[in-house]
Design brief:
This protein has about 240 residues and is mainly β. Helix content is about 0%, strand content about 55%. The chain is built from 1 helix and 12 strands. The strands form 2 sheets. Strands 1-2-3-4-5-6-7-8-9-12 form a 10-stranded antiparallel beta sheet, with no helix packed on it. It has a two-stranded antiparallel ribbon with strand order 10-11. The protein is globular, with a radius of gyration of 19 Å. The mean pLDDT is about 90.
Amino acid sequence: QQLSTQYSRSYSYQNVSVGFTEPWFLGRPNLVGASFYYSERNKTNRYYQPYNSDIIGVSLRFGRRFRWPDSYFRGNWSIAVSRKKYSDIDEGSVYEKYLQEGQKTKERSFTQIISRNSRSHPEFPQDGSSISLITKISGGLLGGDENFVKNQFKIEWWTPIVKNLVFYQNLEMGLLNVFNKNSIIPYQEYFQMGGISMVDYVTSLRGYQDQSVGPPLSNYAVGNAMLKYSMEMRF
């Protein structure tokens, strides 16, 4: 069992979360958990977003290790309910059409993660692979103000060359579909790439500026689809 409390803060970001996880529920490889979270995020010059936001919500999750095709597979399912408030919306951004100053919206979402992990080491693997398929459905029959379906696929694999020299490959793909053209899509749900990914919703791509890779939309680069392949030689 694990009870976790996290708090982080900077001049532009504040986050508080409290969660409980039971990784071996009823003596079986079942995971159950719940969390409460609150965050405030403001616009910055380093990691741009077209508004200030504060979010409060709760989530419930369940996970299970599979026996088929092998014991490296597992599934995780979660539901989230949150209330979001937006302010200081940038003029000229697409959000100016759908959001008003101080507007509050509701999120009702369901997320499924099917994954396989055979890495030889959690931090510095020298062999094996990690595969995940993430599907998130928000709105629609679930209700709320955010209506979209988001799919992400990621595979990483490590091939030993000699001793501690390892050949690493990474492939990531994603697709975001909306239920209608007037759907409210949080900025963090769009695909963004570039930099070393100091925030969790940006895909890292070294050699480029943060959030700089993608189709131009207003004064920021985000997209409804993503494809990335990279390779590295690691020691």
